[in-house]
# Entry
Amino acid sequence: MAASPTNPYSEAGVDTAAGDLAVELMKSSVRATHGPEVLGGVGGFAGLFDASALRDFRRPLLATSTDGVGTKVAIAQAIDKHDTIGQDLVGMVVDDIVVVGAKPLFMTDYIACGKVVPERIADIVRGIAEACAATGTALVGGETAEHPGLLGPRDYDVAGAATGVVEADAVLGAELVQDGDAVIAVASSGLHSNGYSLVRHIITRAGISYADNAADFGTTWGEALLEPTRLYTLPLLRLIDQLASTASTPSTPSTGSGAQAAHGAGGAHGVGGVHALTHVTGGGIAANLARVLPQGSWVEVDRSTWSPSPVFRVLSDIAGSTLESAEGTWNLGIGFLAVVAADKKDAAIAALNAEGMPSWQVGNVGFGPRPSGEFEQGAKGVDGGAVRLVGAYADGAK
# Structure
Protein backbone atom coordinates (compact mmCIF):
# COMPACT_ATOMS: atom_id res chain seq x y z
CA MET A 1 0.00 0.00 0.00
CA ALA A 2 1.35 3.42 -0.92
CA ALA A 3 2.21 5.71 1.94
CA SER A 4 -0.09 8.68 2.54
CA PRO A 5 1.36 11.85 1.02
CA THR A 6 2.89 14.19 3.55
CA ASN A 7 2.22 17.90 3.77
CA PRO A 8 5.55 19.71 3.35
CA TYR A 9 4.16 22.78 5.12
CA SER A 10 3.31 20.66 8.18
CA GLU A 11 6.77 19.13 8.06
CA ALA A 12 8.15 22.67 8.18
CA GLY A 13 6.20 23.27 11.39
CA VAL A 14 3.13 25.13 10.15
CA ASP A 15 -0.23 23.61 11.06
CA THR A 16 -2.91 25.13 8.84
CA ALA A 17 -5.60 22.90 10.35
CA ALA A 18 -4.84 24.30 13.80
CA GLY A 19 -5.16 27.78 12.36
CA ASP A 20 -8.57 26.97 10.92
CA LEU A 21 -9.70 25.56 14.26
CA ALA A 22 -8.52 28.70 16.04
CA VAL A 23 -10.70 30.78 13.71
CA GLU A 24 -13.71 28.58 14.42
CA LEU A 25 -13.19 28.94 18.18
CA MET A 26 -12.99 32.74 18.04
CA LYS A 27 -15.86 33.40 15.60
CA SER A 28 -18.61 33.94 18.14
CA SER A 29 -16.51 36.37 20.20
CA VAL A 30 -15.60 38.43 17.16
CA ARG A 31 -19.17 38.51 15.82
CA ALA A 32 -20.39 39.84 19.16
CA THR A 33 -18.56 43.13 18.41
CA HIS A 34 -20.32 43.59 15.05
CA GLY A 35 -23.16 46.02 14.57
CA PRO A 36 -25.07 46.58 11.35
CA GLU A 37 -22.19 48.73 10.03
CA VAL A 38 -19.90 45.67 9.79
CA LEU A 39 -20.37 43.81 6.52
CA GLY A 40 -19.30 40.27 5.74
CA GLY A 41 -18.27 37.58 8.16
CA VAL A 42 -15.13 36.38 9.89
CA GLY A 43 -12.28 35.13 7.74
CA GLY A 44 -12.37 37.47 4.76
CA PHE A 45 -9.29 39.04 3.27
CA ALA A 46 -10.45 42.47 4.43
CA GLY A 47 -12.99 43.71 6.95
CA LEU A 48 -15.75 45.97 5.66
CA PHE A 49 -17.19 48.82 7.70
CA ASP A 50 -20.06 50.95 6.41
CA ALA A 51 -18.88 54.56 6.64
CA SER A 52 -22.22 56.08 5.66
CA ALA A 53 -22.59 57.55 9.14
CA LEU A 54 -19.64 59.84 8.43
CA ARG A 55 -21.92 61.83 6.12
CA ASP A 56 -23.60 63.19 9.24
CA PHE A 57 -20.35 64.90 10.22
CA ARG A 58 -19.59 68.41 9.05
CA ARG A 59 -15.90 67.63 8.68
CA PRO A 60 -14.99 64.15 9.93
CA LEU A 61 -11.38 63.45 10.83
CA LEU A 62 -10.23 59.84 11.09
CA ALA A 63 -8.00 59.04 14.05
CA THR A 64 -5.80 55.95 14.01
CA SER A 65 -3.51 54.22 16.46
CA THR A 66 -1.39 51.07 16.55
CA ASP A 67 0.39 49.37 19.43
CA GLY A 68 1.17 46.09 21.13
CA VAL A 69 1.30 44.71 24.66
CA GLY A 70 5.05 44.38 25.02
CA THR A 71 6.84 41.93 27.28
CA LYS A 72 3.81 41.45 29.50
CA VAL A 73 3.02 38.57 27.14
CA ALA A 74 6.03 36.69 28.57
CA ILE A 75 4.24 36.42 31.93
CA ALA A 76 1.06 35.16 30.25
CA GLN A 77 3.15 32.53 28.49
CA ALA A 78 4.97 31.57 31.70
CA ILE A 79 1.76 30.73 33.58
CA ASP A 80 -0.27 29.69 30.50
CA LYS A 81 -2.98 32.30 31.10
CA HIS A 82 -3.99 34.19 27.98
CA ASP A 83 -7.51 35.56 28.52
CA THR A 84 -6.48 39.05 29.69
CA ILE A 85 -3.78 39.98 27.19
CA GLY A 86 -6.45 40.94 24.65
CA GLN A 87 -7.85 43.60 26.98
CA ASP A 88 -4.34 45.00 27.39
CA LEU A 89 -4.04 45.28 23.61
CA VAL A 90 -7.33 47.13 23.23
CA GLY A 91 -6.42 49.43 26.10
CA MET A 92 -3.12 50.35 24.49
CA VAL A 93 -4.64 50.92 21.04
CA VAL A 94 -8.21 52.17 21.44
CA ASP A 95 -7.60 54.34 24.49
CA ASP A 96 -5.00 56.28 22.51
CA ILE A 97 -7.71 57.29 20.05
CA VAL A 98 -9.91 58.92 22.68
CA VAL A 99 -7.02 61.26 23.57
CA VAL A 100 -7.99 63.46 20.61
CA GLY A 101 -11.68 63.16 21.44
CA ALA A 102 -12.40 60.54 18.77
CA LYS A 103 -14.95 57.74 19.00
CA PRO A 104 -13.46 54.38 17.98
CA LEU A 105 -15.03 52.65 14.99
CA PHE A 106 -13.14 49.44 14.28
CA MET A 107 -9.99 47.49 15.08
CA THR A 108 -7.87 44.72 13.60
CA ASP A 109 -5.37 42.50 15.41
CA TYR A 110 -2.24 40.52 14.56
CA ILE A 111 -0.89 37.53 16.49
CA ALA A 112 2.49 35.99 15.65
CA CYS A 113 3.28 32.69 17.33
CA GLY A 114 5.73 29.82 17.16
CA LYS A 115 2.96 27.25 17.13
CA VAL A 116 -0.79 27.71 16.75
CA VAL A 117 -2.54 26.29 19.79
CA PRO A 118 -6.20 26.90 18.90
CA GLU A 119 -7.46 27.29 22.46
CA ARG A 120 -4.68 29.74 23.30
CA ILE A 121 -5.34 31.88 20.23
CA ALA A 122 -9.07 31.77 20.94
CA ASP A 123 -8.45 32.99 24.51
CA ILE A 124 -6.39 35.91 23.26
CA VAL A 125 -8.93 36.93 20.62
CA ARG A 126 -11.81 36.47 23.04
CA GLY A 127 -10.14 39.00 25.34
CA ILE A 128 -9.68 41.40 22.42
CA ALA A 129 -13.30 41.01 21.37
CA GLU A 130 -14.71 41.51 24.86
CA ALA A 131 -12.63 44.66 25.33
CA CYS A 132 -13.66 45.91 21.90
CA ALA A 133 -17.30 45.47 22.92
CA ALA A 134 -16.60 47.36 26.16
CA THR A 135 -15.18 50.31 24.21
CA GLY A 136 -17.78 50.38 21.42
CA THR A 137 -15.29 49.14 18.84
CA ALA A 138 -15.98 46.59 16.10
CA LEU A 139 -13.32 43.90 15.68
CA VAL A 140 -13.46 43.60 11.89
CA GLY A 141 -10.47 41.44 11.11
CA GLY A 142 -7.13 40.03 12.13
CA GLU A 143 -4.34 37.64 11.32
CA THR A 144 -2.66 34.77 13.11
CA ALA A 145 0.77 33.90 11.73
CA GLU A 146 2.74 30.80 12.67
CA HIS A 147 6.51 31.37 12.71
CA PRO A 148 8.25 28.09 13.61
CA GLY A 149 11.98 28.44 14.02
CA LEU A 150 11.66 32.15 14.67
CA LEU A 151 9.48 31.88 17.78
CA GLY A 152 9.40 29.03 20.29
CA PRO A 153 6.31 26.78 20.51
CA ARG A 154 4.99 28.72 23.53
CA ASP A 155 5.98 32.17 22.28
CA TYR A 156 3.69 34.76 20.72
CA ASP A 157 3.33 38.49 20.31
CA VAL A 158 0.22 40.58 19.69
CA ALA A 159 -0.38 43.92 18.02
CA GLY A 160 -3.37 45.84 16.75
CA ALA A 161 -4.57 48.94 14.98
CA ALA A 162 -7.79 50.89 15.33
CA THR A 163 -9.58 53.76 13.62
CA GLY A 164 -11.95 56.33 15.08
CA VAL A 165 -13.65 59.56 14.05
CA VAL A 166 -14.03 63.05 15.48
CA GLU A 167 -15.43 66.34 14.21
CA ALA A 168 -12.64 68.66 13.12
CA ASP A 169 -13.83 71.40 15.46
CA ALA A 170 -14.08 69.01 18.40
CA VAL A 171 -10.50 67.73 18.40
CA LEU A 172 -8.92 67.91 21.83
CA GLY A 173 -5.35 69.08 22.27
CA ALA A 174 -2.81 71.63 23.37
CA GLU A 175 -4.37 74.53 21.45
CA LEU A 176 -7.41 74.41 23.74
CA VAL A 177 -5.50 74.46 27.03
CA GLN A 178 -5.92 77.64 29.08
CA ASP A 179 -4.14 79.23 32.00
CA GLY A 180 -5.55 77.85 35.25
CA ASP A 181 -7.00 74.67 33.75
CA ALA A 182 -7.25 71.82 36.24
CA VAL A 183 -5.32 68.60 35.68
CA ILE A 184 -7.43 65.62 36.73
CA ALA A 185 -5.92 62.17 37.28
CA VAL A 186 -7.86 58.98 36.57
CA ALA A 187 -6.67 55.90 38.44
CA SER A 188 -4.99 52.99 36.71
CA SER A 189 -5.79 49.36 37.49
CA GLY A 190 -2.11 48.64 38.07
CA LEU A 191 0.87 48.39 35.77
CA HIS A 192 -1.26 48.29 32.62
CA SER A 193 1.13 47.23 29.82
CA ASN A 194 4.20 49.37 30.32
CA GLY A 195 7.46 48.83 32.15
CA TYR A 196 7.33 45.04 32.14
CA SER A 197 10.96 44.67 31.13
CA LEU A 198 11.78 46.32 34.48
CA VAL A 199 9.17 44.20 36.27
CA ARG A 200 10.60 40.97 34.87
CA HIS A 201 14.13 42.10 35.71
CA ILE A 202 13.14 42.74 39.33
CA ILE A 203 11.32 39.41 39.65
CA THR A 204 14.17 37.44 38.07
CA ARG A 205 16.87 39.04 40.22
CA ALA A 206 14.81 38.34 43.34
CA GLY A 207 14.54 34.64 42.42
CA ILE A 208 10.74 34.79 42.36
CA SER A 209 8.72 32.39 40.21
CA TYR A 210 5.49 33.62 38.62
CA ALA A 211 3.81 30.58 40.18
CA ASP A 212 4.91 31.64 43.66
CA ASN A 213 2.32 32.97 46.08
CA ALA A 214 2.38 36.76 46.40
CA ALA A 215 1.17 37.34 49.94
CA ASP A 216 0.67 41.07 49.37
CA PHE A 217 -1.88 40.39 46.63
CA GLY A 218 -3.58 37.17 47.74
CA THR A 219 -2.75 35.43 44.48
CA THR A 220 0.27 34.19 42.55
CA TRP A 221 2.84 36.63 41.22
CA GLY A 222 1.91 35.79 37.66
CA GLU A 223 -1.79 36.46 38.20
CA ALA A 224 -1.09 39.71 40.06
CA LEU A 225 1.16 40.99 37.28
CA LEU A 226 -1.41 40.11 34.60
CA GLU A 227 -4.03 42.47 36.05
CA PRO A 228 -5.55 43.81 32.82
CA THR A 229 -5.37 47.39 31.64
CA ARG A 230 -8.32 49.58 32.61
CA LEU A 231 -10.43 50.72 29.66
CA TYR A 232 -11.19 54.45 29.60
CA THR A 233 -12.75 55.14 26.21
CA LEU A 234 -16.49 55.23 26.86
CA PRO A 235 -16.36 57.01 30.26
CA LEU A 236 -14.12 59.68 28.75
CA LEU A 237 -16.33 60.13 25.69
CA ARG A 238 -19.32 60.53 27.99
CA LEU A 239 -17.36 63.05 30.07
CA ILE A 240 -16.56 65.09 26.96
CA ASP A 241 -20.24 65.13 25.97
CA GLN A 242 -21.44 65.95 29.47
CA LEU A 243 -19.09 68.88 29.98
CA ALA A 244 -19.69 70.15 26.45
CA SER A 245 -23.43 70.29 27.09
CA THR A 246 -22.92 72.44 30.19
CA ALA A 247 -20.02 74.59 29.00
CA SER A 248 -20.23 78.26 28.29
CA THR A 249 -18.03 79.85 25.64
CA PRO A 250 -15.01 81.31 27.44
CA SER A 251 -13.79 84.78 26.72
CA THR A 252 -10.30 85.40 25.40
CA PRO A 253 -7.97 86.35 28.25
CA SER A 254 -7.04 90.02 28.29
CA THR A 255 -3.77 89.47 30.13
CA GLY A 256 -0.97 86.95 30.22
CA SER A 257 1.91 85.91 28.04
CA GLY A 258 1.64 85.64 24.29
CA ALA A 259 1.46 81.86 24.61
CA GLN A 260 -1.39 82.11 27.08
CA ALA A 261 -3.34 84.54 24.93
CA ALA A 262 -2.88 82.38 21.86
CA HIS A 263 -4.27 79.35 23.60
CA GLY A 264 -6.79 81.01 25.88
CA ALA A 265 -9.41 81.33 23.15
CA GLY A 266 -9.33 77.64 22.33
CA GLY A 267 -12.69 77.04 23.96
CA ALA A 268 -14.30 78.90 21.08
CA HIS A 269 -14.01 75.65 19.14
CA GLY A 270 -17.00 74.49 21.15
CA VAL A 271 -15.38 71.41 22.65
CA GLY A 272 -16.51 72.37 26.12
CA GLY A 273 -14.95 71.71 29.48
CA VAL A 274 -12.46 69.01 28.45
CA HIS A 275 -9.49 70.63 26.70
CA ALA A 276 -6.91 67.84 26.52
CA LEU A 277 -6.46 64.20 27.47
CA THR A 278 -3.37 62.05 27.80
CA HIS A 279 -2.89 58.31 28.15
CA VAL A 280 -0.19 57.52 30.72
CA THR A 281 1.79 54.80 28.95
CA GLY A 282 5.51 54.44 28.24
CA GLY A 283 7.46 57.38 29.64
CA GLY A 284 5.30 57.87 32.71
CA ILE A 285 3.20 60.73 34.01
CA ALA A 286 5.35 63.78 33.27
CA ALA A 287 6.34 62.86 29.72
CA ASN A 288 2.83 61.99 28.60
CA LEU A 289 1.24 65.08 30.12
CA ALA A 290 3.88 67.31 28.53
CA ARG A 291 2.90 65.96 25.10
CA VAL A 292 -0.60 67.49 25.25
CA LEU A 293 0.30 70.89 26.72
CA PRO A 294 1.18 73.98 24.66
CA GLN A 295 4.64 75.50 24.57
CA GLY A 296 5.07 78.06 27.31
CA SER A 297 2.83 76.19 29.77
CA TRP A 298 3.87 74.17 32.79
CA VAL A 299 2.35 71.89 35.43
CA GLU A 300 3.59 70.71 38.79
CA VAL A 301 1.96 67.36 39.54
CA ASP A 302 1.49 67.02 43.30
CA ARG A 303 2.49 63.54 44.48
CA SER A 304 0.76 64.07 47.82
CA THR A 305 -2.66 63.87 46.14
CA TRP A 306 -2.48 60.08 45.74
CA SER A 307 -0.89 56.90 46.99
CA PRO A 308 0.60 54.62 44.30
CA SER A 309 -1.00 51.17 44.11
CA PRO A 310 0.50 48.35 46.20
CA VAL A 311 2.02 46.62 43.18
CA PHE A 312 4.33 49.59 42.60
CA ARG A 313 5.35 49.77 46.24
CA VAL A 314 6.03 46.04 46.53
CA LEU A 315 8.12 45.93 43.36
CA SER A 316 10.10 49.00 44.45
CA ASP A 317 10.75 47.43 47.86
CA ILE A 318 11.98 44.20 46.26
CA ALA A 319 14.26 46.18 43.94
CA GLY A 320 15.54 48.32 46.80
CA SER A 321 14.65 51.44 44.84
CA THR A 322 12.30 54.39 45.26
CA LEU A 323 8.99 55.06 43.58
CA GLU A 324 10.44 58.29 42.24
CA SER A 325 13.11 56.36 40.33
CA ALA A 326 10.40 54.55 38.35
CA GLU A 327 8.43 57.68 37.39
CA GLY A 328 9.74 57.54 33.82
CA THR A 329 8.74 53.87 33.47
CA TRP A 330 5.53 53.07 35.38
CA ASN A 331 2.21 54.91 35.62
CA LEU A 332 2.34 54.69 39.44
CA GLY A 333 -1.43 54.62 39.77
CA ILE A 334 -2.50 57.15 37.14
CA GLY A 335 -3.77 55.73 33.85
CA PHE A 336 -5.14 58.90 32.26
CA LEU A 337 -4.98 62.64 32.79
CA ALA A 338 -7.64 65.14 31.76
CA VAL A 339 -7.01 68.87 31.41
CA VAL A 340 -10.33 70.59 32.03
CA ALA A 341 -11.64 74.11 32.52
CA ALA A 342 -11.11 75.24 36.09
CA ASP A 343 -14.82 75.78 36.67
CA LYS A 344 -15.59 72.25 35.46
CA LYS A 345 -13.13 70.30 37.59
CA ASP A 346 -15.63 69.30 40.28
CA ALA A 347 -18.15 68.16 37.69
CA ALA A 348 -15.47 66.20 35.88
CA ILE A 349 -14.30 64.41 39.01
CA ALA A 350 -17.87 63.61 40.04
CA ALA A 351 -18.73 62.28 36.58
CA LEU A 352 -15.67 60.04 36.41
CA ASN A 353 -16.17 58.72 39.93
CA ALA A 354 -19.77 57.89 39.03
CA GLU A 355 -18.39 55.84 36.11
CA GLY A 356 -16.27 53.78 38.51
CA MET A 357 -13.15 55.72 37.51
CA PRO A 358 -11.52 57.06 40.71
CA SER A 359 -10.37 60.61 39.92
CA TRP A 360 -8.78 63.58 41.68
CA GLN A 361 -7.00 66.84 40.92
CA VAL A 362 -3.19 66.72 40.77
CA GLY A 363 -2.35 70.21 39.58
CA ASN A 364 -3.12 73.28 37.48
CA VAL A 365 -1.79 74.60 34.20
CA GLY A 366 0.34 77.72 34.41
CA PHE A 367 1.73 79.98 31.68
CA GLY A 368 4.67 82.34 31.58
CA PRO A 369 7.59 82.17 34.03
CA ARG A 370 7.70 78.82 35.77
CA PRO A 371 9.22 77.83 39.11
CA SER A 372 12.96 77.16 39.17
CA GLY A 373 14.17 73.60 38.84
CA GLU A 374 14.11 70.83 36.29
CA PHE A 375 11.00 70.04 34.25
CA GLU A 376 10.39 67.38 31.63
CA GLN A 377 9.70 68.77 28.18
CA GLY A 378 9.81 67.64 24.57
CA ALA A 379 8.65 64.06 25.12
CA LYS A 380 8.08 61.72 22.15
CA GLY A 381 9.26 64.35 19.70
CA VAL A 382 6.60 66.86 20.76
CA ASP A 383 7.91 70.24 21.89
CA GLY A 384 5.02 70.84 24.25
CA GLY A 385 4.64 72.01 27.81
CA ALA A 386 6.84 71.42 30.86
CA VAL A 387 5.91 69.02 33.66
CA ARG A 388 7.48 67.79 36.86
CA LEU A 389 6.30 65.84 39.88
CA VAL A 390 6.70 67.55 43.26
CA GLY A 391 6.24 66.67 46.92
CA ALA A 392 6.03 63.23 48.51
CA TYR A 393 3.54 60.48 47.80
CA ALA A 394 0.67 60.06 50.26
CA ASP A 395 0.58 57.37 52.94
CA GLY A 396 4.23 57.49 53.85
CA ALA A 397 5.52 56.86 50.34
CA LYS A 398 9.25 57.02 49.82
